[in-house]
Amino acid sequence: MEEKKEPKKKLDLNRRAMPKQPPHIRRRNFYEVALGYSPEDAMAEARRCLLCKKPVCVNGCPVDINIPGFIKFIAEGDFLNAVRTLKQTNCLPAMCGRVCPQETQCEIQCNLHKKKAAVAIGRLERFVADWEATQGQVEMPEMRQPSGKKVVVVGSGPAGITVAGDLIKLGHQVTMFEALHEPGGVLTYGIPEFRLPKKIVHREMDYIRRLGVEVVTDYVVGKTKTVDQLLESYDVLFLGTGAGLPWFLEIPGENLCGVYSANEYLTRMNLMRGFQYPKSSLPIKKHRRVAVFGGGNVAMDSARTAVRLGAEEAYIIYRRSRQELPARLEEVENAEEEGVVFQFLTLPVRLIGDPDGWLKAIECLRMELGEPDASGRRRPIKIPNSEFTMPMDAVVVAIGNSPNPLIPKSTPGLELGKNGNIIVEEKTGKTSKDRVWAGGDIVTGAATVILAMGAGRIAARSIHEYLTGEKLDQPSPSVRNDEPED
């Protein structure tokens, strides 16, 4: 008797939108913009997944999440097993579901992407993580017996958290050192409250502590103790201190009052609780007209923060066109909805101050696009005699960052790249210095949260093999698919 074939699943191309605060309301508060899925919406979105026999979406995930596996559980309403599946390889799902560029990683690989209806993988990841938080008790993973080996992790950003979480589960004792007074790295000081609420970061850090990781804050490695001094007490060391040295345009007037790096601007708001204003003091002078130089996610964060601080006008000044913007599309759209003005094909060349040293205007040049450059984007070319000025009382420079030189300068034996980044073996994360690994932005320069986590997973597997001789399945090295900030 001939076996009946199952009927082919009908394609559902209705990607479920996630509710958001209306622009006219959210531009005056720091509450999260996206409000999350209901269980019904999440299940409906999950049922759109084709459960492909060869799930190419997984190829786009730097931490190798079993994407069809956790989505299938959501479709069935089994949210607990969806959480368990996610956390097999990702210890920060609530964060990744909010800030990772799924549209250029896993979702672009989805077979429904060809029909412009990729499954909302990131939104489903966020839903599951948020559902777990409502249950009152976070399930702890299986832990191996103690190995007796001691690991120190320098930096508590996404790379460091991933290394610490993986190694503590493998039985190693892990201590994490953070220079600032709150852990989380860029998750805490670099991403605004309306994109990643601090309660989410605190929740994930509490989970890491509950796993057994000791977290020590206000500890500046390179000053409090050097890497070599720490290696006297620990078996191995991982460097994940990020890229905290801001770039500037090096044009006249950048030393005027009212000129900020994006690092300073966002760190003040995040660590000095400016997002709680008026309940807390505002750590930044109120400005009426704010220009942000750059076109990446950090630039969008800065401009949207300025709007929430009451700026009458907030501009993105970008030397290329809209098509070349490296920021996530949803961040660009959110900024436009909130009233940010985009000044494309514009290059700042001089900042003009008043007699008291405060910024009062910026001088710019018009640009046009030529042939593609090394980034693959069309190169901006200056248009002669096209100078014009814009009155402005604040500028935020958001064109990129390099690693802070403190640790490289205080650590002999580390091979460095031209921008001060640490050189590592791609497949292991091992540096040129014995017993030292590194990963995240200190290696790649400013990139994404999920790429830093992928590097952390690679390093953790290599460290475990060094400490025990046991070889675990190694994740594939992540391909850089982010764009520069400028």
Summed up, what is this model?
Helix content is 30%, strand content 15%.
Describe the structure.
By secondary structure, the chain is an alpha/beta fold. It has 3 domains: 23-133, Alpha-helical ferredoxin (Fumarate Reductase Iron-sulfur Protein, Chain B, domain 2, Orthogonal Bundle), CATH 1.10.1060.10; 150-244 and 402-468, 3-Layer(bba) Sandwich (FAD/NAD(P)-binding domain), CATH 3.50.50; 248-399, FAD/NAD(P)-binding domain, CATH 3.50.50. It contains 16 helices and 16 strands. A hairpin with a 5-residue loop joins strand 11 (359-372) and strand 12. Helix 3 (67-75) runs antiparallel to helix 4 (79-87) and helix 4 crosses helix 6 (121-133). The longest helix is centred in the last third of the chain and has 20 residues, at 449-468. It starts with 22 loop residues before the first helix and ends in an 18-residue tail after the last helix. The model is unreliable at 476-484 (pLDDT under 50).
What's the structural blueprint in terms of helices and strands?
Layout: H1 23-26, H2 39-46, H3 67-75, H4 79-87, H5 93-99, H6 121-133, E1 150-154, H7 158-169, E2 173-177, H8 186-189, H9 198-211, E3 214-216, H10 227-231, E4 236-239, E5 245-246, E6 259-261, H11 262-271, E7 289-293, H12 297-308, E8 313-317, H13 329-337, E9 341-343, E10 346-353, E11 359-372, E12 378-382, E13 388-391, E14 394-397, E15 401-402, H14 406-410, E16 436-438, H15 441-444, H16 449-468
Parallel strand pairs: 1-2, 1-4, 2-3, 4-16, 6-14, 7-8, 7-14, 8-9
Antiparallel strand pairs: 5-15, 10-11, 11-12, 11-13
Helix pairs in contact: 2-3, 2-6, 3-4, 3-6, 4-6, 5-6, 7-16
